[in-house]
Specification:
Elements: H1 2-22, H2 33-42, H3 46-55, H4 69-74, H5 85-123
Length: 135
């Protein structure tokens, strides 16, 4: 029985502390969030009880005071990558970018080969030319 007199307030304090830390600054009432943390930790039994009743803006679904339509719109359900059109589009964009980069490299190589061939034809010297250069 004596253990309950210690464990119950400790559990209540831990719960209130974690609840306070996870609550956004907009949902805290009356005081800044940091003040609530100090109240919960300093006033061992009273602090958590006051936090639970007065510190957090509670929403009740039965009365319609739940999240606003803006907040409901922000929530998104998890979608598998193969069903997510944004993810698939990003894969396609990555693939297109790599393809364009490979094509640009290919064009650069072809251009370099063409310039090399032109130099060989104009100058008559090149790596395959067996005739010695004339001076």
């Amino acid at each position: 029985m004596r253990a309950l007199l210690f464990i119950v307030p400790l559990a209540l304090t831990i719960y209130a502390f974690i609840d306070c830390l996870n609550t956004s600054e907009e949902d805290t009432r009356h005081l800044p969030k940091i003040a609530w943390v100090f109240i919960i930790l300093l006033f061992w039994i009273v602090g958590p009880v006051v936090w639970l009743f007065a510190g957090k803006a509670r929403r009740n679904a039965a009365t319609g005071t739940g999240p606003s339509s803006w907040q409901r719109g922000r929530r998104q359900q998890w979608v598998a990558p193969d069903d997510n059109p944004d993810f698939l589009k990003s894969l396609k964009d990555d693939k297109d970018a790599r393809k364009a980069e490979a094509e640009a490299e290919s064009r650069k190589a072809e251009k370099a080969e063409a310039e090399e061939e032109l130099k060989r034809r104009d100058g008559g010297t090149g790596p395959d030319d067996k005739t010695p250069p004339t001076s």
